[in-house]
Specification:
Elements: E1 2-11, E2 14-22, E3 27-31, H1 38-46, E4 53-58, E5 61-62, E6 73-76, H2 88-98, H3 103-116, H4 132-144, E7 150-154, H5 162-176, E8 183-187, H6 190-196, E9 199-204, E10 207-212, H7 214-219, H8 224-229, E11 235-236, H9 238-243, E12 250-252, E13 258-273, E14 278-284, E15 287-293, E16 303-308, E17 314-316
Helix pairs in contact: 2-3, 2-4, 4-5
The chain binds adenosine-5'-triphosphate (ATP).
Organism: Calidithermus roseus
Enzyme class: hydrolase
InterPro entries: AAA+_ATPase (IPR003593), ABC_SmlMolc_Importer (IPR050093), ABC_transporter-like_ATP-bd (IPR003439), ABC_transporter-like_CS (IPR017871), P-loop_NTPase (IPR027417)
Amino acid sequence: MLALRELRKSYPGFSLELSLTLPKGQTLALLGPSGSGKSTVLRLIAGLEYPDSGSIRMEGRELLALPPEKRRVGMLFQDFALFPHLSVYENIAFGLREASWPKERLEQRVRALLEQTHLTPQAHKLPHLLSGGERQRVALARAMAPNPDLLLLDEPLGALDRRLREALVLELRELLSGDGPTAIVVTHDQQEAFLLADQVAVMREGRLAQLGSPETLYHHPADPWVARFLGHRNLLSPEESSQLGLPRKAHLIPSAALELGRGPQARVLERLFMGERVGYWLEWQGLRLYHESGESAWQEGQSLSLSLNLSRLIPLEGA
Ligand SMILES: Nc1ncnc2c1ncn2[C@@H]1O[C@H](COP(=O)(O)OP(=O)(O)OP(=O)(O)O)[C@@H](O)[C@H]1O
């Protein structure tokens, strides 16, 4: 288990303050906008930065008392940083040679990792001959080689184009799930965080805005900021809520609360064709609501009847 306790780090104009725990074997995603402190957390754990105060305990050891190389933490960088002149095999073996692993044990470990990451046929290739996905797996195998207690992945899919990211996120998910390593993944992509992590920590300005499973976070965001950050578009302010007869609090309108085909008229303000799905911004009873569906026939200016099931709205803390 990893435990960060009251970890503090200040830079001019920015301060981080964080406590959280991560059970062994689980994956945590640090999700937040640019500048919210995600990479700082990784750097503090890896030992590339030192905190002003606090503690980082991993399997009962205080990591802050140890130099980076003794922390048993593996790091995977955004650009993978493979050694271009070394084969796949030698890239994976690199850290083990540095740590003077005995020959036989080293060979066994590298072969096992090649198997696990489906890279055995590529073992003797140089990195430039590999696909993006294969390169990612080499980098991951290299980071996992010395059996770190914790794997840190900083935007592991950040440098790749969207189509490749979509395929690779599933490969990464397979490697991290089940009896995979304890891992922390930094990402600013909500979908990636949800697909990879058991727990998601949403960060805002150096603080933990919310920690929870992807489903809990999505269905029960802590406040309107988290709700908006996770892509919810239909939120009521406290004033709008009270006009509808609800308590004077912000509310989230889940898509299941919008019922089409009955109720007062809504006007289509904007139609956003995206392919399989079409998004519609609607004006209804003085509110601007967003609805997404497979229905593509509605046009701008058209009216539809719509009702809002108030019993399904979720009250949120904060404004
Ligand atoms: N070495 C440093 N010296 C001064 N300020 C720093 C340093 N490292 C980070 N910061 C500041 O700390 C804040 C958090 O940076 P950090 O890189 O952790 O954010 P992030 O959430 O990872 O952002 P991104 O998604 O853009 O990578 C930023 O305002 C940044 O400018």
